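User: Can you write out an input/output pair for a complex, sequences first and structure second?

Assistant: Here is one pair. Inputs:
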Amino acid sequence: MMTVTVVGVGLIGGSLVLSMKQHGVATHVIGVDHDPTHLREAAARHLIDEGTTDLSAAVRRADLIILAVPMDALLSLLPEVLDMVDNQVVIDVGSTKKALLDVVRTHPKRSRFVAVHPMAGTEFSGPEAAVPELFRDKTLVLCDAEDSAADAVAQVEHVADALGMRRVYLGGAEHDMHVAYVSHISHITSFALALTVLEKERDEQRIFELASTGFSSTVRLAKSSSAMWVPIFRQNRENVLDVLDEHLRQLQHMRDVLAQEDYSAFTDLIHQANHIKRILK
Amino acid sequence: MMTVTVVGVGLIGGSLVLSMKQHGVATHVIGVDHDPTHLREAAARHLIDEGTTDLSAAVRRADLIILAVPMDALLSLLPEVLDMVDNQVVIDVGSTKKALLDVVRTHPKRSRFVAVHPMAGTEFSGPEAAVPELFRDKTLVLCDAEDSAADAVAQVEHVADALGMRRVYLGGAEHDMHVAYVSHISHITSFALALTVLEKERDEQRIFELASTGFSSTVRLAKSSSAMWVPIFRQNRENVLDVLDEHLRQLQHMRDVLAQEDYSAFTDLIHQANHIKRILK
């Protein structure tokens, strides 16, 4: 019997409580959102059992509080919520961790907070984008878990297991570096690819008619919302710039090899890139 | 009642004849491949009814001949096959068209050839990658169709309609320019993204554990084969370099805006990229 309060009933928060209800981990879900249409939509979709704008009451009544708001809002929301908790457990679902962990490092209730990052999502947003089983077979990263109380970590592990998630434990700074490689850079390249095609191909009907499945797959993330992603890039700016510079070097090298018509070197580059098959099925 | 000969029983050729058999367009399929294990595999998977290495007999017995080999092999194979045909129809399924059309421009049997490009595929290759319905709701581009005989074009249109494909008519040079934007560049960015991550993230277990659905989606094409793609980049080099240079400019601009911490401009770039939503659902 667990009452869960979710602050932010969008794609990630909504999908998370929906999955928790379906797997019997959450028995009652209270939604908090600054947007009343989000709350109505979330209730209509049975993501939440009740909606409120009274954050402190919703925190007081919960066993677990999930903070699923954009990263910039999270930096002020997390200490505010920790000020309110007694023995409840608080988790975030943010895509960067170091700045957030720094904000609460000396907070007297720091141990009630478990920093987690579910490695799943889609390019859509809002409660209407929430789907069950979004997290099955995906990874849940727990960051700096040694700074959280053992019972709080155990509760989060219980939720992860119930949802069929793999658990990975990382330091916050280490997490931010890795996600720059395997998540954030993909969004940058996808945004840039969309900008490229929109710039070069002025005939939108042609894009629609000719877009291959491959193109759709690489450009899909370019539909992602700036409200979610700008704060992520801001908070993980140094790591993202580092991997982006490496990506620019790799692209420039492929360009030069093609310009020089060195097809043997070009073939070698593709063979090297093919190694990703070993890792991703 | 149509006998179809397919030269090259890989992903595209195999999927095409499989779909044609399932939709009753092809009644008998002869497979020709230089690799006997491909022919055995294709027969075992019922992609073809018989396999042979005797190209001229297979051409003579067919109503429709599909050339589904890499682009470099196609440049010599197409005139060779046109030398053999009487009133049969010959199509290719290649990803570039201008060089190929130039090769047969003055061939006496030019009018029996219809240059087509089905805008669909996956990152896998070989007969084991062939799947039915790969082409449903996808686009079939017919290039320079005015240089083909009316009955040959009509036969290809009949196949496209039976497979549930959208038909688009383009000039060969125009086709090559458009596909550089909406297909070839995606493969370059995906190869470069894989190289970036393999270079920066030396811990392969971490890539496996943390790879988000978004990362997998943008890097999927990096599994594509060099045998197929190097000839495409070679034959469409100028268009690919042109769009690649634009992509490098867009990426560099995103990088500079992020380095300068100009988040208002960064937000604007994402909003512009989001316009791709209008075109691709």
